[in-house]
Amino acid sequence: MKWKIISVGKPSFSWAREGIDTYVKRLQPFAPVEMIQLKKSDSALFLKASGSALTLALDERGRGFTTAAMARQVTTWEMDAVKEVAVFIGGSDGLPAEIRKGADMCFHLGPQTMMHELALLVWMEQLYRVYTLKADHPYHRG
């Protein structure tokens, strides 16, 4: 299953860029990942970039998930032959309302508000953690 991570803007902090690149490389044995940076937070741009993929919006108003629950969800998508999942991460103003409401699923990374660069990095780490859990790799110690 391929992942399209669609976010607004390029991370400006070097630590965020380095961390994201690290997790993209670590994910390569498990699943292909395509990073797509939009120049602005526009619904049409998000939808065009996602194509026909199942859509997952990351937003503070979404529901929470544990790593184990997300691993089960990813397994379900794989068993249902989902070919692509597009993850939407908004910019400093969050996601457009129509993207949040129209997404197949809406999750949050925690109850706090965080800068979008950090949210992107946290998501990438969680995605890697999900795949290591599924592979019974020692990275995840649940």
Structure explained in plain terms:
The structure is a single chain. The protein is α/β, with parallel strands linked by helices and 142 residues long. The protein has a single domain (2-134), classed as 3-Layer(aba) Sandwich (Alpha/beta knot). Helices cover 42% and strands 23% of the residues. Strand 1 (2-8), helix 1 (14-27) and strand 2 (33-38) form a beta-alpha-beta unit. The two termini are 24 Å apart. The mean pLDDT is 94.
Q: Decide which structural class fits the backbone.
A: alpha/beta
Number of separate strands: 5
Q: Biggest sheet: strands, sense, closure?
A: 5 strands, parallel
Number of helices: 5
Topology:
Elements: E1 2-8, H1 14-27, E2 33-38, H2 43-50, E3 54-63, H3 67-79, E4 84-89, H4 97-102, E5 105-107, H5 116-134
